[in-house]
Every structure is written in structure tokens, then in C-alpha cells.
Amino acid sequence: MELDQLRYFLQIARRGSFTKAADDLMISQPALSRSIQRLEEELGQPVFERKTRSIALTDAGALLQVRAQQILTILEETVAEIADDGVTGRVRLGAIPTVAPYFLPEVLQRFSAEHPRAALIVQENTTEGLLRACTQGEIDLAIVALPVRAKYLEVEELFQEELLLVLPTGHPLADRPRIRPADVEPYPFVLLDEAHCLSENILSFCRQRSMQPVAVERTSQLAMVQELVALSHGVSMIPAMARSRDQSDRRVYRSLSGPKPTRRIAVAWNPYRFQSRLLKAFRDHLRR
Fold first, then answer.
1. What is the pTM of this model?
2. Which of 3.40.190.290, 3.30.40.10, 3.10.290.10, 3.40.50.1100 is the CATH number of 159-264?
3. Which residue, 125, 163, 208, 227, is most buried by CB atoms nearer than 10 A?
């Protein structure tokens, strides 16, 4: 059994497709299929159940997925520990979608300038997916919004940011000098779907003030929330970091009077796994 076979197998399992995995790995699909066929012959049973338009892991494949990830993680950590010079290596970073496109570009650019020989690998996922990946060693760090249930993980708050009320241009509240939470209650809300913690931040703020917003739209993309607000589907609350990148004149942003709705951004990592000097340097960079 070869390490490349395990890497190929894991990529297919992650993508759920031989075609997509082949594109990611930059090899031909026939070559990828032959590699998996040799793996299955060595194991004496299939690891994938081939369906008409999809594939699924067999029981043997599910076990192999766990073991293969453990094997590759141990190997990678061993190499990193031996060659731990604080200059070379990689940092695998995950972030929730309401943080990644707004917060990370400048962070990554500055770190790359300071550590030009380091490789930075980024993935977006929901909080649950990131915490699971961090626990299993698939990523080194996860940037999430608090609160989180993080068994076996170390969690450190980085900063707090305000959630701004976003309204379509011409909205009755847009020109008010002060907008109270109660002023917003009659209007329908556009929210991210339930997998995103930002919606829970907003709903928690509303519940604390006995507000019952009516969610008329739900979407999985923050940019779509902003677009639906511009089209007068409702109002919403948007992280300040997303506001700073919005150049549209079809929306206006307002800070609520009184106690502000906020969210707390944190970084999580698995303290039971090897912490390279490069990884520690990146954590310090995040703190700065």
C-alpha cells in the first residue's frame, strides 16, 4: 500500500467523485481509477460503492478513511517536527464563510510577506465542520465565532466586532439619526441558513430584547443576504468587516443605539497535536 494511494483515496472520499478528485490531484481519471483498483485488490474488498451518479464509502472504506487520515497526519507531523525550522512548512487554516473572504486576505498577505517559504492552505466550512477537522488533524487552526462547543480543543478569543444593521436605500429607517432595536422589529429579516452561527448571533441579540424577527429569506451566502436586502426583501445585520468591502450604493449601514449587537471571533487548535514553530508564529500573527 502506497502513501499516494491513501492520499488519492481520501481526496475521492472528500469530493465524492472520481472526476473532481482527479482534477484536484491533477492526474487523469483512468490513472486515479487504476490506483484505487490496486488498493481494493490489496485489501480484498471494495472501498467505494459505485452508483449511477455518485459514490459512497463501503464499511471497509469508512474504516480506511479514518486510518488513512491518521497515518498521513502522523507522517506529516513527524516530518514537520524533524524539519521544524520556523521558516518552511505549511499552515492549514480553516475559517467560517462570514470571516474568510473579509478577514483572511490581508492576514495571509502579511504573513506570506514575513514567511515567503511557508505554504498557507485555506478552507471554508461551517463551525461544526471546522471544529471536527481541527480535532481530527485535518487542519491546524480554525477561525470561528463564539460560543463553540470545543471538546479537546484550545480556544482563544481574538477580537469582538459590531454587527451593523443593513437596509435598502430609501428604507423608512435609513435617515433616522438613531435606530433602536425596537424600531427594527416590524420589518422582516434576511438571514443566513441555520448552519451559520451568524444567524444565531443575530437571533440571540433579538431574544435578549424580546424581539421576534420574522425571517422571510434564508441563504447560505453573506453576499446574497446583502443583495436580497438591496432588493427590499427585508433588513439584516452584517459584520462590520463585510461592510468595509461593500461598495454598493443600493444599501446603507447603520449602528444601532444602545447596547450593540456583536460577535466574538476566536481561533481554535488541537493542543494534543504537534505545534510547529511556524504554526505558533501564525497564531502570534493572528493575535497581532
1. 0.71
2. 3.40.190.290
3. 163
Three cell numbers, residue 79: 516530518
